[in-house]
Specification:
The chain has four helices and no strands. The protein is mainly α. It has one domain.
Length: 99
């Protein structure tokens, strides 16, 4: 259950920081699919960022931590953790250069 909560929180934090960074012009979206979604509207971006972790959490409850669901859940958590580290780096660089 902790992995599920981390995934949901990390997804929401990633969405907020991505929106913040793009709005300030500090970063650009690296994923071409998500970039196209953002061009359609931020509400679609947030919908995807919330829906996909919720879908994986739903799969977890149907088949808790077994086989592919466990692998997907752990992989998503590792990926989001890496993305959040990337966000920390650009925020620190942004704060360092704007001071």
């Amino acid at each position: 259950m902790r992995l599920c909560l981390f995934l949901l929180g990390a997804g929401a934090l990633d969405a907020l920081l991505t929106h913040f960074g793009i709005s300030l012009g500090v970063v650009e979206e690296g994923n071409p699919l998500i970039k196209a979604v953002i061009e359609k509207g931020w509400e679609y971006f947030y919908l995807i960022k919330v829906f996909l972790p919720l879908l994986l959490i739903g799969l977890y409850y149907l088949n808790p931590l077994k086989g592919r669901v466990r692998t997907l859940l752990i992989s998503a958590c590792v990926l989001y953790f890496s993305v959040l580290i990337f966000h920390m780096v650009w925020i620190l660089l942004y704060l360092n250069t704007s001071a």
